[in-house]
Write a structure and sequence with these properties.
18 helices; about 5% strand; 3 domains; four-stranded antiparallel beta sheet; alpha+beta
Length: about 525
């Protein structure tokens, strides 16, 4: 029957699904052959691939809250909270795949011996120890995987054809990896502290050199105006400011308080008590002198916070001793008065002695400031050189104070990283022995085969339809050529058609071989690598 007469044009125009279906059915082999071949390749891959077992352990990265401002929050170095997982995963993956870590595992488990045994079984020449270690390290790297398993949860997985080997290796690698990661976190803090300690030694030497130069220069001065004078160019402005504040307090609030206490004494005793006997007491005199020295240091020197706290603590202790001594003497002198009255008298005497000591401190401080200003006015060049030397000493002391504070902070952070404070890595779940292989995955292989076969088959059919330039009906001939068909002839099977047939068979064979090659590459090469 003439094929051109079998397909009459359907009535109407537009999209004709039946025409498309007939075009597809004429080329059905281009679809079914790839479909069958790809599914067959998937089945072959399932049957021939070596079963791979996986054993995995779960790791938890935890950040304990820090309530102390002296400790550095370890999560700050990761930036925003959402970046913590990404940065932690990057650090852990870098450590897991580092050659040093892999080589340590290889050496401890003697995995290079298995590589030499494998080479011997294959009948090849023996390999060196170094090459065996390198091959074992590369093989171990291909069997380890680190995956994100949730918020701050990570999965360390080991794959091997033997489930027991996978389990034992996963257990060992997980424990060793956690130890190495903790050590790496501590090592960063330790290295920072060691660097600061080296810098501290350098600046301590600089301070010693600066103090030696200053002492030599002062010893060579012709004038003794600066002898035993703690005022220098660096603390002059602070000393003047402290002196002004002390005078304002002495003449202001302290003077008003003193007047009020005197009025209370005159109401109680009729007159103010004499404080000479208290000032001449040896114990009280020594306490007052020490208080004056401590107060002068607080007003003169640019001491650090720690030294200032020590001086304040010492000054408070001296005040308590002086108050106790005055109360003992008042109790003996005014034994007939009540406790509250004696306490009022003791407070008046203490405040009077304290104001007298403060006045002496201010006078001495003012004298030292005047001596230094007079010296700088008489010898500006010498005072300039002296100021530079004193500046070097002061700067070196400031650097040493800052470095010592930073070393203390780094030491605390180091100890915190070794405890339960700060960033911690923990094993949340130990590896387990697997009874079912993870590869080959039958569902994944079959799905891959279906998708690949549909893609190749439909692609070939669509390509064949677009490349087909032949007519399929009389109406198509008349519509395309614009002529009237008066008759049709059957297909004549001659040499020309035989050659065409052979070309089609060769084309089919090429297509089938290409499909087999694509399927083999996809199922036997690409899929194992993806797994």
């Amino acid at each position: 029957m003439d094929p051109f007469l079998d397909e009459e044009e359907q009535s109407g125009g537009g999209f004709d699904p039946m025409s498309l279906l007939r075009a597809f059915w004429r080329r059905k082999m281009l679809f079914f052959v790839p479909f069958i071949l790809c599914l067959s390749m998937a089945g072959i891959a399932v049957k021939t691939m070596t079963p791979i077992f996986a054993s995995s352990g779960q790791i938890l990265i935890n950040f304990e809250g820090l309530n102390s401002s002296m400790l550095t929050d370890p999560s700050r170095r990761f930036g925003r909270p959402r970046n913590i997982d990404a940065m932690a995963f990057h650090e852990m993956n870098m450590l897991l795949t580092s050659p040093d870590f892999l080589e340590k595992v290889v050496m401890e488990l003697r995995l290079q011996d298995a590589e030499r045994d494998l080479v011997a079984e294959q009948g090849k020449a023996p390999i060196s120890e170094e090459k065996a270690i390198r091959r074992a390290r590369s093989r171990l790297d291909s069997r380890l995987q680190l995956k994100q398993d949730g918020v701050r949860l990570f999965l360390l997985e080991v794959r091997d054809p033997d489930p027991e080997v996978a389990y034992n290796l996963a257990t060992f690698v997980l424990d060793r990896f956690v130890e190495e990661y903790r050590a790496s976190q501590v090592a960063s803090s330790s290295s920072t502290r060691e660097f600061l300690q080296k810098q501290l030694a350098t600046y301590q030497q600089n301070l010693a050199d600066a103090e030696e130069a200053l002492n030599k220069f002062q010893a060579g001065l012709a004038s003794d105006a600066l002898a035993d004078n703690p005022i220098n160019a660096m603390n002059l402005s602070d000393a003047q400011a402290n002196l002004a504040v002390a005078r304002e307090r002495y003449n202001g609030t302290d003077a008003r308080e003193m007047a009020g206490l005197g009025q209370g004494m005159r109401s109680l005793l009729g007159t103010v008590p004499a404080i000479a006997i208290y000032q001449n007491d040896d114990v009280a005199k020594s306490i007052i002198q020490e208080m004056e020295m401590v107060g002068l240091e607080l007003q003169l020197y640019q001491v650090g916070a720690a030294a200032a706290r020590e001086l304040e603590t010492r000054l408070g202790q001296l005040r308590v001793r002086l108050t106790t001594r005055i109360e003992e003497m008042v109790a003996r002198q005014y034994s007939t008065l009540s406790f509250l009255d004696r306490n009022q008298i003791s407070h008046y005497i203490y405040f009077s002695m304290f104001r007298a000591g403060a006045k002496r401190v201010m006078d001495r401080l003012d004298g030292k400031i005047r001596e230094f200003r007079d010296f700088t006015a008489r010898q500006p060049e010498v005072s300039s050189t002296l100021a530079e030397l004193q500046s070097d000493v002061t700067n070196s002391r400031a650097f040493i104070t800052r470095i010592e504070s930073e070393i203390t902070k780094q030491t605390m952070n180091l100890e915190a990283s070794r405890s339960e404070i700060g960033m911690q890595i923990k094993v949340r779940r130990k590896p387990s022995l697997s009874s079912h292989p993870v590869e080959p995955n039958k569902v994944k292989l079959l799905l891959m085969g279906v998708v690949l076969s549909l893609g190749i088959g439909l692609g070939l059919v669509i390509l064949a339809i677009f490349l087909d330039r032949s007519f399929t009906s009389v109406q198509e001939i008349e519509r395309t050529l614009g002529v009237t068909v008066i008759g049709t002839l059957p297909v004549i099977q001659d040499d020309h058609f035989e050659r065409k047939k052979k070309i089609r068979v060769l084309r089919w064979a090429t297509i089938i071989l290409g499909i087999i090659a694509v399927g083999a590459v996809g199922f036997l090469v690409i899929y194992p690598r993806l797994g």
